Amino acid sequence: DFGIREAFPAAERKTIAIKNGWVDRQAENEYHVSCLAIGDRWTIGVMARYEINKGYTYGADICEKVGEQLRVS
Fold first, then answer.
1. pLDDT digits over 17-49, tens only?
2. Residue 73 CB: number of other CB atoms within 10 A?
């Protein structure tokens, strides 16, 4: 459990469906992280590609930050 849902208060997280995934593309020296979150009246999707040495938590943090930015809008 990581990403977009982490940007919401704990009580609200229970109502948000998620699907997260990651894969390390060693041949390309990249990580690919995808996060999807679905609320009652909204959907947020994030896809990130970056250098493999940053690890998957770097992508998870990107997803959470996008959630934070969209939540306050």
1. 999 999 999 999 999 999 999 999 999 999 999
2. 4
The structure tokens 């995808």 sit at: 34
| 62 token code pair | 């990107």
Where do we find the tokens 């959907």? 43
Inter-residue contact 48 to 30 (CB < 8 Å) = no
Element (H, E) at 68: helix 56-72
Q: How confident is the model at residue 73 (pLDDT cuts 50, 70, 90)?
A: low
Separate counts of helices (H) and strands (E) for the chain: 2, 3
